[in-house]
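Researcher: Here's the sequence for the chain we discussed earlier.
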Amino acid sequence: MKTKAFQKIYTHIENVTKATCTVEAEGVSNEEMALVDGRPAQVVKISGKKITMQIFPGTQGVATDAEVVFLGKPPTLKVSNELKGRFFNAYGNPIDGGPEVEGTEVEIGGPSVNPVRRKQPSELIATGIAGIDLNNTLVTGQKIPFFADPDQPFNQVMATVALRAKADVIILGGMGMSNDDYLYYKTLFDHAGALDRIIAFINTTDNPPVERLLVPDMALTAAEYFATEHKAKVLCLLTDMTLYADALSIVSNRMDQIPSKDSMPGSLYSDLAKIYEKAAQYPDGGSITIIAVTTLSGGDITHAIPDNTGYITEGQLYLRRDTDIAKVIVDPFRSLSRLKQLVIGKKTRKDHPQVMNTAIRLYADAANAKTKLDNGFDLTEYDRRTLQFAREYSRELLAIDINVEVEAMLDTGWKLFGKYFTKDEVGIKAELMDKHWVGAQS
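Model: Thanks. This is the structure I predict for it:
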């Protein structure tokens, strides 16, 4: 060990694995940042004087006599209004060519809000996507994932949400993005003139996978600043949480920890929960809403990542390709927002719950009719009408490229009811029927 400018520098590394190294040191705290041979690293284990660090870019080429410098603090982010309109890497450093941000330096990854300081979510957050706002309405302070196959256009959906959502600040945490996806977001936000309310923390496929572990904490630290200090309605978009969990697995396996289900670390539930539980509605104003993407492998929702996610979050949104209309839709059967009852019919029009439930019932009738057709059974006249309704309902309301206000969605629902069904078949309360019915059938 030697001292340089009052800073301790260690030059005797005792053990090097594929992702970590161990030195003997004193006065070091857990999660403290360090530089190992100039590479950023973080303390992940302390056993007496034995300090183990994960090296984000990897340990290849690190010699046992390499310099190890502890920085005396965990990862931090400078927070201020200057964050708006900027793109950063996993360490919070600008990647958009702009200047360094000036502000208050705060530690990332702090504890979530005490439950007694939370307010029950009660404010609608409109995304502009009809398949969400009509059937799976979101509220401020909610946490919900998109479950999607890797080949589905979830980046397009997230970008649409970012541009259309009624939120004060949009924060994007991108993990394992291709350069094309990163440029897609950047160009889209720029051309839409929306950069003034968007902040992005990006890890691309060119960056070390382990750096993804910093991205959600960076994004949520910025979210907490705007929600608490500026009482802002903040929407945090995280993509892709499967790649985040894969990074956890990389570190765990390289530290020779015994893996749990699907090669994931045993701490997966708590690792995911500490992120999602940052979603909150604050009593004195301000909120953090989290929408994340969890990509599925072959549609397998029993994998440890979506399985654990489902226990933590307040519902899920499924994307699937509807072959009848050749578009990706928000699946009305497998999607669920557990908090929608807090706002539908209260913050939205009174007929919202009835229109939503009736449309899903008729769509289910169409699914049954399609099963009959596929199995060679005769269809009734009602079956044929439900199939026609389902195609138009998918095209005009479930497709992810539909962007209308909630009232327009409800009006479209009434139009479709009247086009294909009688009042008795629709079965909505008479007082609502008298006010909104536009059908040609009696």
